[in-house]
């Protein structure tokens, strides 16, 4: 009898890890569903941002009728310059705040910062250029639509806050810049992109630049990702041949930021809870699919954030450690097989801050 009880106890003990893993895969999380009060809050924010942008568009059209092109807009000293909105999506401290401080130094008229910090986690306010830049946030969880909702919230907050925000760069607390701010700004606003024009056509009112967002099809595991919410759940709005994947980090134009916050049709599908967490990375599916379906010609199809997936673990990319930090690493992280160099790189461990600061002026911000 004693031996039987001992065997049963050992079996139960060995089963606990398996039960835990299965529960994670099968049982829904408390953050899997977007709650109605949260959805209504977001819709109110989106409406405000859209109305503010309509008013801004009318003013811009008047300016266009006077001066003719975005380069005229950029070149007139009396006119406020367009800005880049940096959107930090985080669930931990912004460990590289001192490095970003050096990156933003003396450029306050050319950028804005917005931070969505998970309120369920205690996060330290880094101060400096980040002070007062936290927006009203809600809980987030990996493998759930909450990350889409948080990103849409960031875009809406930036659209509403400043009509001069023209590009919207989504980054994480693990991202670092690999170029100077001047290089990034001039690359976005002055460098021509293949397939687009630096001048606004006479019969067009749109901002004449493309969004930098990775849009991929035919990748391994696409079918499993498509079915991660259940069989035929995505139909009819999202047929499999129009489903796309890509990096969750992007740089969107103002037009595309508005397109995202005004979307209701695809959001109704992507907001559904994931049944298979190991195949469902909602934020890597929603944005590429939406923009591919709605406005593919104005997307570069690639990201400006470098990530090394060669040594990935549990869905996380390679994490750089202090011994790897060097000027040579920065030069390699910039390299791209597209027409644009990478602007950002991830994923770096917090203890990389000191060696990164050591090479900041000599390697990162020196072109």
TrEMBL record:
In the UniProt record, does the keyword Glycoprotein occur? yes
Location of this chain's protein in the cell: Membrane
What molecular function terms (GO) are annotated for this protein? glycosyltransferase activity
* Bilayer topology: Single-pass type II membrane protein
Q: Which residues form the signal peptide?
A: none
Q: Which InterPro entries match?
A: BC10-like, Glyco_trans_14
Is-annotated flag, keyword Phosphoprotein?
A: no
**Pfam name, any one:** Branch
Could you name the Gene Ontology cellular component terms for this entry? membrane
Q: Which domain of life is it from?
A: Eukaryota
Primary location = membrane
Q: Which UniProt keywords apply?
A: Glycoprotein, Glycosyltransferase, Membrane, Transferase
* Database matches in PANTHER family: CORE-2/I-BRANCHING BETA-1,6-N-ACETYLGLUCOSAMINYLTRANSFERASE FAMILY PROTEIN-RELATED, CORE-2_I-BRANCHING BETA-1,6-N-ACETYLGLUCOSAMINYLTRANSFERASE FAMILY PROTEIN
Write the protein's name. Transferase
